[in-house]
Design goal:
Elements lengths: L7 E15 L13 H4 L7 E2 L13 H8 L3 H8 L16 E5 L5 E5 L7 E13 L2 E16 H10 L20 E5 L5 E4 L5 H11 L6 H7 L3 E2 L9 E4 L7 E7 L7 H8 L20 H5 E5 L11 E5 L3 E7 L3 H4 L5 H35 L6 H24 L9 H14 L1 H51 L11 H24 L1 H12 L5 H11 L6
Parallel strand pairs: 9-10, 11-14
Antiparallel strand pairs: 1-6, 1-10, 1-11, 2-3, 3-5, 4-5, 4-7, 5-6, 7-8, 12-13, 13-14
Length: about 550
């Protein structure tokens, strides 16, 4: 063991899960859903994937069966939908998830500061996930490499998934990012390259738009969708939900997982930069309960013999890492081993966990924007506020019943890891806060509705009370005061309008002064009030109120 771990990573996988907030579609764009824009793209950059359930059962792969069977029925319906039964009646319907894939990016060339040699990795998948009725999209990028040093694998985990630099050094080097990232096509041509070193671009974006720009190679990958602050016209726009570090999953096959030091495991768990194998990345006090909080050691026992498959799973919310022996088929088999589970069951576990958090953050952001636009002195603003809040409440209700669940599987490892994942992400706390905020908004709407109803009832009561005087007076006689039955039709029409117009004006004026008249009636009914106070309240009825 040297100062830096010289452990060889025989096989390496990394999956980035990057949630993004989709902006509302502009009116008149002709799109019903955000993903319709990708379908209509003439370049066909993204192509929608068919489901994994072919018409012929003999074509159905076992790994997809294992993936399906790992989840509880309500999660199965969310992930895969439910087809028509034998009776021809549908139940749940299609899955609310739409997946698009681009196939032009085949490799990525990564260069790191201080290292002359670049690292090329295979781009296994580049997918974009959409969710019905929730303005969230998730970009998924899976890369693979073989025969890396552990320090290089740590470097990739730490630096690859960066949307923009955290800052720059005195020499102008971007901090925490690769020196460069290049997407390569099937022929090895460079399709797009990062611009982490373009310091002016990122500073100008924050200064002018109060929003962070993202590196060009990520913008290229998300095209034809457009970053929200861009001036170019595009119907589908997105913006970031969290900070520049994308959630990551990693799978490492090594000769002997027991050769990794405690510091090595810590760096993998927290997706930290590589360092000395004997030095922990953080203070000892902070890491005192590392094994209890961040390690899932159900299948890891260093004291066992060679026949035991030592597989250690690390989870800190931001990262999920699995380390196991490269010589055991149980760990590296892509169809039935842990690698298959990592790329399917555990990936979906992470997708659900991060989707829950992203959807809650999106709804919370929508609430903030709705409240910020509220102007209590503007009736149109108040009306729009009520409309927006009701729409948000409806979206939250559908999200809660369609997407949000605390249990996803009865398989113990998946159940335990999902709970650990969600706990580190703080999703339950965010959900409770959002529910309370929506409850406050709902209470406000109910109170406002009762207030407006009370005003209406008060106006009707005062109008009815004043109308009662004339009704009783004329009704007491049992006949009309004036007989115009023998008059001509023109005279009767003129008399009709002569009565209708003043009566209507009187009614409208009564509605206008109904609140002040109600105050006079309250003073009149108050036995403790003097006649002077009552006359003063009566005089107030005829005074114009001042705001």
């Amino acid at each position: 063991m040297t100062e830096m771990s010289d452990i060889a990573v025989r096989d390496f996988r990394q999956i980035l899960i990057w949630p993004l907030q989709l902006m509302p579609l502009p009116p008149g764009c002709g799109l019903l859903n955000h993903w319709d824009y990708l379908d209509r793209d003439p370049n066909r950059t993204w192509v929608e994937l068919d489901d994994e359930f072919p018409e012929r059962p003999e074509d159905f792969q076992e790994r997809h069966y294992r993936e399906f069977a790992a989840f509880l029925p309500h999660v199965q319906r969310f992930l895969y939908g439910e087809r028509a039964s034998r009776t021809g009646r549908t139940t749940y319907g299609d899955s609310p998830i739409r997946i698009f894939r681009r196939a032009d990016v085949k490799k990525a060339r990564l260069r790191f500061h201080g290292q002359a040699e670049a690292t090329e990795v295979d781009v296994v998948h580049t997918d974009l996930y959409f969710f019905f009725d929730v303005d969230v999209a998730i970009l998924v990028v899976e890369i693979a490499a073989r025969d890396l040093h552990l320090s290089r694998a740590q470097e990739i985990i730490y630096r690859f998934g960066r949307a923009y630099p955290a800052g720059w050094s005195e020499s102008g080097a971007a901090l925490n990012c690769p020196e460069s990232v290049e997407w390569l096509g099937a022929d090895g041509a460079v399709l797009a390259a990062s611009d982490y070193q373009a310091r002016t671009k990122y500073l100008a974006s924050v200064c002018k738009d109060q929003a962070s720009a993202i590196s060009y190679h990520w913008e290229y990958l998300l095209a034809p969708m457009m970053l929200n602050q861009r001036a170019q016209v595009a119907p589908v726009r997105y913006r970031q939900l969290e900070f520049h570090r994308m959630p990551t999953m990693a799978w490492l096959a090594v000769d002997d997982p027991r050769a990794l030091t405690r510091a090595d495991f810590m760096r993998l768990a927290f997706a930290s930069a590589p360092g000395a194998a004997t030095e922990t990345p953080y203070a000892p006090g902070f890491l005192a309960d590392f094994e209890q909080r961040y390690c899932y050691d159900r299948f890891y026992d260093p004291l066992r013999g060679e026949g035991w498959t030592n597989t250690r799973v690390l989870c800190s919310g931001q990262s999920f890492v699995a380390i196991g022996p490269a010589e055991h088929a149980l760990f590296v088999d892509p169809e039935r081993g842990f690698l298959s589970q990592f790329r399917h069951q555990y990936f979906l576990l992470g997708l659900i966990a991060h989707f829950h958090r992203a959807a809650i953050l999106m709804l919370s952001d929508r609430l903030v924007a709705t409240v910020s636009r509220l102007d209590m002195e503007n009736n149109a603003s108040v009306s729009q506020f009520r409309h927006d809040i009701r729409r948000t409440l409806e979206t939250f209700l559908r999200f809660t019943h369609r997407y949000y669940f605390s249990e996803v599987s009865d398989q113990l490892p998946m159940r335990d890891l999902f709970r650990m994942w969600v706990a580190h992400l703080g999703t339950d706390r965010l959900f409770a806060e959002l529910r309370d905020e929506l409850g406050d908004m709902s209470s406000y709407l109910e109170t406002d509705l009762l207030r407006r109803q009370a005003k209406t009832i008060l106006t009707l009561t005062i109008t009815t009370l004043l109308s009662l005087v004339g009704t009783v007076t004329t009704g007491f006689l049992g006949m009309n005061l004036f007989s115009q039955a023998d008059m001509s039709a023109i005279d009767r029409t003129l008399i009709f309008f002569a009565v209708l117009i003043p009566t209507t004006l009187l009614l409208l004026y009564t509605v206008m002064v109904s609140r002040r008249f109600a105050e006079f009636l309250d003073a009149l009914a108050d036995e403790g009030a003097s006649w002077r106070e009552r006359w003063s309240a009566f005089a107030t009825v005829w005074r114009r109120s001042r705001r």
